Amino acid sequence: MKEKISAIKGTKDILPKEARKWQRVEAIARRVFELYGYREIRTPIFEATELFEKGTGQTSDIVIKEMYTFHDKAGRSLTLRPEYTPSVVRSIIEHRLYLMPEPLRFYYVGPMFRYDKPQKGRYRQFDQGDIEVFGEMDPAVDAEIVEMANFLLKKLSVTGVEILVNSVGCSACRPTYLKELRVGAEKARDSLCPDCQRKIKTNPLRIFDCKVESCREIAKGFPKITKYLCTECEEHFHKFCTYLEFYKLPFKLEPHLVRGIDYYTKTTFEFVSKKLGAQDAILGGGRYDDMMKEFGGPDICGIGFAIGMGRLISVVPSKKRKEGFLYLAYLGEEAKKTGMELVQLLRSKGLECLIEFKERSLKNQMSRANKLGATWVLIVGEDEVREGKYQLKNMATGVQKEATREEILEMIQEGP
Ligand SMILES: [Zn+2]
Ligand SMILES: [Zn+2]
Predict the structure, then answer these.
(1) CA terminus-to-terminus distance, the chain
(2) Which of 94, 97, 108 minimizes the C-alpha distance to 51?
(3) Which of 25, 29, 289, 391 is the most exposed place for a label (fewest CB within 10 A)?
(4) How far is CA 362 from CA 167, 194, 335, 341, 383, in A?
(5) pLDDT for the residue 291
(6) Distance between CA 70 and CA 244 in Å, rounded?
(7) Cα(58) to centroid of ligand 1, in Å?
């Protein structure tokens, strides 16, 4: 026996049955983003490693532990993108998209990569839906993207979702807060996990992202950023909340919501599902007003969110498909050819048809059609070929009728 090759640890196949749901969810997401004036931007899956080091921040967990980095044959250090925003920012600067009349509103749906410890529900290759807006400082845009996310979830019939919001301040007000946070964390040092102990010095905000339950409990007592916001950040946050109320969106202030990435400024938010538990947001995002500048681009603010597509799909209720599907059963060579021609005609009219080229009895073919969930079975035998009349069976009602080609077309157009 030859040795079998399996999928790489931390990756998974999305099999056809599941892929249908993915297609539906992705199509609805794309449609919703387009409705709000976003356009798709496709960037490469791998980029120079520096891009993500710079963008995601040297002290982010993503950079320290989780980047999928490798050397290519020329010895360059490349990284499979762990997130989308740095690539978009690079692309905007590279193509000077900010000089174009089109709004800087982009979306993308595709795979990201993180070399995380594989565990249930977490993969090294995972899909994200991302949206980004650049050059709009008004907190109304912060509220609009939250409203858009909410609209998308509504379209997908996702219920039981809570919206959490916070502000993480800016380069003017955050340092004072970080100082206070360090003092608070230092007092609790001995009770924190080794990872969090290290974060006290490098980036105390990251303590709030720790998955260890005892750390989460302790962190609840740490100083809250809300009290340290400068006037500008406070006003921005207040207006953001006012616009959310204007949209009649219920939300909860979560002063420790910092998100796992260094570049956020001002607004941060998350959508959490009661079905998934508080640690697993379906969607999260925030502002990154300094990012473009730090990448050597113009001083243009930005905001966006990322959806974990796998998590989203796990909370989207499944739907029965509405479109019909016809299974063609035949007996004998002549009937097969007639069948081949009939499905060609029906497919050209937009009906999904399946004819299988494997010798089977009629009974066997009928039971396959049943198993596959066919809406109709069209039976072609030698008599039928001779007379130009076929047996069309409606699988829902069980009614079988003799019909000509024209009658078949008519019946099918009427629907199941
Ligand atoms: Zn500030
Ligand atoms: Zn910890």
Answers:
(1) 48
(2) 94
(3) 391
(4) 67, 68, 12, 19, 14
(5) 87
(6) 43
(7) 22
| d(C-alpha 157, C-alpha 151), whole Å | 10
Give the domain 325-414 fold: Rossmann fold (3.40.50)
Domain coordinates in residue numbering, the chain: 16-173+229-315, 325-414
CB 306 within 8 A of CB 128: yes
The alpha carbon of 213 and the centre of ligand 2 are apart by a number of angstroms equal to: 8
- CATH fold of 16-173+229-315, please? BirA Bifunctional Protein; domain 2 (3.30.930)
Q: What is the Cα–Cα distance from 396 to 370, expressed in whole angstroms?
A: 10
What is the phi/psi pair of residue 96, to 5°? 45, 45
Angle at 389 between CA 388 and CA 391, to 5 degrees: 145
26: tokens are 């992705």
Q: Which two tokens stand for residue 342?
A: 């009939």
Q: Which ligand is nearest to the CA of 185?
A: 2
Q: CA–CA separation, 145 vs 285, rounded Å? A: 9
Per-residue pLDDT of 288-338, as tens digits, reads: 998 898 888 999 999 999 999 999 999 999 887 667 899 999 999 999 999
Beta strand spans in 135-180 (E): 161-167
Instruction: Write out the residues surrounding ion ligand 1, Cβ under 5 A.
Output: 169-170, 172-173, 230, 233
Contact between 60 and 106 under an 8 Å Cβ cutoff? The reply is: no
**Sequence-distant (≥ 6) Cβ neighbours of residue 117 within 8 angstroms:** none
DSSP 8-state assignment for residue 218:
H
User: What pLDDT sits at residue 60?
Assistant: 63
Ligand 1 centroid from CA 168, angstroms: 8
